[in-house]
Design goal:
Radius of gyration: 17 Å
Distance between the termini: 38 Å
Oligomer: single chain
Order of helices and strands: HHHH
Largest sheet: none
Helix content: 55-70%
């Protein structure tokens, strides 16, 4: 019987790095979708440029911040008013 081993987690292999990068990308896309859905549900119009910035953002801390603020802003552009883009160490 053949045994297939995995080098996950923490070995820093190319496969693991690629997996983690894809996982981070998927989480960021989900957070961005959440921000936009909250704004839509609240009836707040989102300009195409603002929608693009939210959708293309890859900083999960920024997206989490925007997600929290999406519940209270009166305009979508208020999310982007304050600069809150922190580079994450795992990118």
């Amino acid at each position: 019987m053949a045994v297939v081993g995995s080098y996950f987690p923490g070995r820093g292999t190319l496969i693991e790095q690629t997996f983690l990068k894809g996982q981070a990308h998927g989480e960021a896309a989900g957070l961005a979708e959440g921000v936009l859905r909250i704004l839509e549900h609240r009836g707040i119009a989102v300009r195409s440029e603002t929608r693009r910035r939210i959708s293309e953002c890859t900083y999960r801390d920024t997206l989490r911040h925007w997600l929290d603020r999406a519940f209270t802003v009166s305009q979508a552009d208020e999310l982007l008013d304050e600069l809150f883009e922190v580079e994450e160490p795992d990118r």
